[in-house]
Amino acid sequence: MDEVTEGACYTRQELLASVMMRLAADAESIAVGNTSPVPAAAALAVFAKRKGRVTLFILGSFKYNKLFTGGIREQYDFSAKGRVDVQFFGGGQIDGRGNINLVGVDGYPKTRIRFAGSFGSGLQYYTGRRTILFREEHSRRVFVPKVDFISAPGVSPEGVYHPGGPIALVTGMCVMRFDRERPGFTLQSVHPGHTVADVVAATGFEFDRPVDVPTTPEPTAEELSLLRGFARAEVAEVYPNFSANAFMDAGS
Questions:
Q1: Which of 6, 77, 187, 225 minimizes the number of CB atoms within 10 Å of its CB?
Q2: Structural domains for the chain
Q3: Distance between CA 137 and CA 207 in Å, rounded?
Q4: pTM
Q5: Reported confidence tier of residue 237, pLDDT bands at 50, 70, 90
């Protein structure tokens, strides 16, 4: 079983998935990309709660990716038509304007450290209606004042077609909301076991915060039931090790 917050009856991954479930609760369609087990579990739990009344596609899954029989190009086309409602993106670096870097450190082409690559982010970050940014690691090497390379921008200049963009950032420490008008992040809640001072110390960009920052609500009994039941069983198709280790047993 994965990391458990001291005194809690849930794992950190269950807490993060429950947060993302709430953010995606009203989604018409949900897209989950590569190496994204926590977002995949959250999406599956939403799918179960909505009794299948949401279009769901998980990269690497056969059962939940049947919509795209021709491969990833069809998913790009689906996104370009504005039909992806909620999607999850990460980044090797993320800055306070919502820019993400999936290429590497020190700037292209002289990258000292290489990341996995931008893939479809340059299109889908623009056209997906709502993007939830997610990094379990919360550190100054990830959350930087300015990314070394912009794989995809959080906002664009006036006149650039950019109907979508980030709405929130979920990390191992906190939840932040993104305001496209400023643009910038506002601290919404801090996870149990962490403080606002922890978040400030581990974040390289400036962000707004209210005087009193609430604690992130713990997963409800219903959320845990969905995650430990349907989501755990179904996510094993793509992420068997995650399924085996990230959840407490049902009834714990």
A1: 6
A2: 1-87+220-252 (no CATH), 90-116+137-217 (3.40.1080.10)
A3: 18
A4: 0.93
A5: very high
